[in-house]
Structures are given as structure tokens and as C-alpha cells.
Specification:
The chain is mainly alpha-helical. It is built from four helices and no strands. It is flat.
Length: 104
């Protein structure tokens, strides 16, 4: 159950990244609220998960999932490059996160 909080925190982090991207393109109060709200919710959910899970594993899963998700969102929705090297790096992040989770 607590791992779902970590995944929800990662999803909120991705929402924060989207808000940051949109806010950097056009500075409005709603975009600032999305940016700040996404990251704030992410940290709150991660804090609660830390009360029940090993910090090292939960943090690794949160940061890896959030990073991979942010890369995918930026490729799909904002037209960033999807070079073979970048996709290989993304695959390594996912493999690393899975390894940390399964071995902890």
C-alpha cells in the first residue's frame, strides 16, 4: 500500500515538471500553482511513505520513476528528442529502479 504512495508521489512530481515546463513558457498564476502544487504534493506523499518504507528504496523508486516519467512526458507532449542514447539511458533508469525495489 505504501508503495502506491511512492508512485502517487512520482506522478505528482511529473505533474510538477509539466507545470514547470508550461510556467517557463508562459508565466501565469494557474501554471505557477500547477508547478508548485505538483511538487508540494509529491513531497508530502513521499514524506508519508518514508514513515513506513525504507528511505533508500522509496527515494530511489520515487526519483527514478519521476525522472523516467518526466522524460517520457517531454518526449511525447513537448517534442523533445528521442535518440537511441536517450532511450537507452531511460531503459537503464527503469532497470535500476526495478532492481532497487526488488532487492530491498
Amino acid at each position: 500500500m505504501m508503495w502506491l504512495l511512492v508512485l502517487a508521489a512520482a506522478a505528482a512530481e511529473i505533474a510538477g515538471v509539466i507545470g514547470l515546463k508550461k510556467f517557463s513558457q508562459h508565466k501565469t498564476w494557474p501554471r505557477l500553482a500547477g508547478f508548485c502544487g505538483g511538487f508540494s504534493l509529491s513531497f508530502i506523499l513521499l514524506y508519508v511513505a518514508f514513515l513506513y518504507l525504507p528511505v533508500s528504496a522509496a527515494y530511489a523508486v520515487w526519483i527514478g520513476t519521476g525522472t523516467a516519467g518526466a522524460v517520457l512526458v517531454n518526449i511525447w507532449f513537448f517534442g523533445e528528442n528521442k535518440t537511441p542514447g536517450r532511450l537507452a539511458g531511460l531503459a537503464l533508469i527503469i532497470i535500476g529502479v526495478a532492481g532497487v525495489k526488488w532487492l530491498s
